[in-house]
Amino acid sequence: MSEPEIHPTAIVEPGARLGADVRVGPYCVIAANAELGAGCRLQHHVTIEGPTVIGAENVFYAYASIGQQTQDLKYRGEPTYLRIGDGNTFRESVTVHRGTAPDSWTVIGNRGNFLAYSHVAHDCVVGDGVIFSNNGTIAGHVEVHDYAVIGGLTAIHQYCRIGRHAITGGCSKIVQDVPPFMIADGNPAIVRGINQVGLERHGFDEESIRRLREAYRLLYRSKLNVKQAVQEIRKTLGDAAEILQLVEFIESSGRGIIRRHVRGAGAEE
Q: What is the pLDDT of residues 180-212, one digit of tens each?
């Protein structure tokens, strides 16, 4: 493996740590308290602030701004952090901020794809294999679980959670949790079905998809309330992994899950 390759116009502050085979393009700025793992690529005009720890083989396109301080008005300059895993792609003008409270972290997992102008705010936790479409924006303290897809121009309210393999439609407004495996779409969003195409692409078999479709029916198309629907799901759909994940997510929700009907919005029951 080779030494880092740094363009003459780039600024790499003393104390910054660059792994083997890192390439830093023209006019990039890397702060003293930033660390980049082996094989990272910075195209040009990329800013890496810190304290930030970045894993291996991440790619940053032009004008990405990573590790800037939180925009939360409570912030008073305390040390806060950002950690990014391996193999992510951050396209043009993506922004990712550090935590707010002293010693707090924003965390991004592995192999995510963050398209142009998407934003990860302070204190968020983002899992593996996610996709943020163009201008997908998450507010502070949001959780995006593994393999979720955030649609273009989607805005997600603070403290919401997006479950595993869930997807949001473009231009959606998300103000409550989106359960795993579901599609949420609209402004404000409602849950419209299971993410069948996404599930098939990730290798879910027909029986798993059938169980999730039945769970969706109980949650969103029956006359049961959420608690009753969860009880019925437990009783009728057994202990398959995807059903347990769905139930645990619902039962641990702090903001409540998005429902099908939106009061006053004209959506069907």
A: 999 999 999 999 999 999 999 999 999 999 999
Distance CA 229, CA 210 (A): 16
Residue 88 to residue 104: CA distance in whole angstroms? 22
- The residue type found at 34 is A
Pair of tokens at residue 131: 């996709």
Tokens representing 28 are 């990039």
Q: Are 99 and 68 spatial neighbours (Cβ–Cβ below 8 Å)?
A: no
What is the Cα–Cα distance from 7 to 29, expressed in whole angstroms? 11
| Identity of the residue numbered 175 | V
Q: What is the pTM of this model?
A: 0.95
- By annotation, the residues acting in catalysis are 122-123, 140
Crossing angle (nearest 10°) for helices 226-237 and 206-216? 150
